[in-house]
């Protein structure tokens, strides 16, 4: 399954592409509350999204400065930001926490507020861009990240490439692994990087979506995100590419993803995928 939250508030289990529950939202709540209290996001985002994911996985969970915040607040944040999802409190437990009890007051209808400010088309676009970035970061990432790619597919998923159709997560993973090795080459100068130039999306069925990603391949370069009107933090945009890099274009690609809701909340499975590669 592919998880599509904002990377900055992903819980560790979501980054590892594991099954998850509402405990992932408890993690996000803790980060959001800590950011509101301190006025800054608690992780270093200057290294880009891949580096941020590693910080969340490997660094100790952030904590509020105890000399600046109440004991109740520090306890609340520490409880939310447990690395082990099973160790985080439930929603009911948090509602009974001393920090919440301390400031109980009139209720707010968050559901109605969300409806008043939510733009479905904009949200769909955000999800599509996040999917593309998440997918290609893993595709071009290390082997430890790559092994999670298999979980993006179901047993009935299909992947079409070069006139052949592959069915099931194992067959698709093996085929993608061969393509990945081909693009990596034998040395850094032979590596083929990906320039993601356009991302299109639309609703597919009642709950699914279709996403089309198109762009170019460039010899001897790293993965670049250059979607129209969008750039992931820490990645170059198309206007920042030098003419020398653009002259190394080795081909172009178009990839279509057809997504269906997975069994876990907020997750999608790639039900059908089609890859087309052209040589310049």
UniProtKB/TrEMBL annotation:
Residues in the signal sequence: none
Top-rank taxon: Eukaryota
Alphabetic keyword roster: ATP-binding, Kinase, Nucleotide-binding, Transferase
Pfam families: Pkinase
GO molecular function, one term: MAP kinase kinase activity
Annotated Protein kinase domain residues: 1-100
UniProt-listed Enzyme Commission number(s): 2.7.12.2
InterPro entries named among the record's database cross-references: Kinase-like_dom_sf, NTF2-like_dom_sf, Nuclear_transport_factor_2_euk, Prot_kinase_dom
SUPFAM superfamilies: NTF2-like, Protein kinase-like (PK-like)
Positions of the NTF2 domain: 127-277
Family to which this protein belongs: Belongs to the protein kinase superfamily. STE Ser/Thr protein kinase family. MAP kinase kinase subfamily.
Protein name (record): mitogen-activated protein kinase kinase
Organism: Aegilops tauschii subsp. strangulata (Goatgrass)
């Amino acid at each position: 399954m592919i998880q599509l939250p904002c990377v900055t508030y992903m819980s560790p289990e979501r980054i590892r592409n594991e099954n998850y529950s509402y405990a992932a939202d408890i993690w996000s709540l803790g980060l959001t509350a800590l950011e509101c209290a301190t006025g800054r996001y608690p992780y270093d985002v200057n290294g880009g999204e891949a580096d941020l994911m590693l910080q969340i996985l490997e660094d100790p969970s952030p904590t509020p400065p105890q000399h600046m915040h109440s004991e109740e607040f520090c306890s609340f944040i520490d409880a939310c930001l447990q690395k082990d999802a099973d160790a985080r409190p439930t929603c009911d437990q948090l509602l009974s926490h001393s920090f919440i009890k301390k400031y109980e007051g009139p209720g707010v209808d968050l559901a109605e507020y969300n409806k008043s400010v939510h733009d479905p088309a904009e949200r769909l676009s955000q999800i599509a861009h996040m999917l593309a970035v998440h997918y290609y970061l893993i595709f071009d990432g290390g082997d430890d990240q790559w092994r999670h790619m298999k979980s993006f597919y179901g047993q009935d998923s299909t992947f079409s490439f070069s006139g052949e159709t592959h069915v099931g997560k194992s067959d698709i993973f093996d085929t993608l692994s061969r393509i990945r090795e081909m693009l990596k080459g034998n040395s850094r100068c032979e590596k083929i990087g990906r320039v993601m130039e356009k991302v299109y999306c639309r609703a597919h069925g009642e709950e699914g979506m279709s996403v089309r990603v198109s762009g170019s391949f460039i010899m001897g370069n790293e993965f670049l995100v250059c979607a129209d009107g969008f750039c992931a933090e820490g990645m170059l945009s198309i206007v920042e590419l030098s003419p020398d890099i653009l002259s190394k274009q080795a081909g172009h690609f178009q990839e279509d993803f057809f997504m269906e809701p997975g069994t876990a909340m907020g997750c999608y499975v790639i039900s059908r995928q089609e890859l087309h590669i052209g040589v310049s």
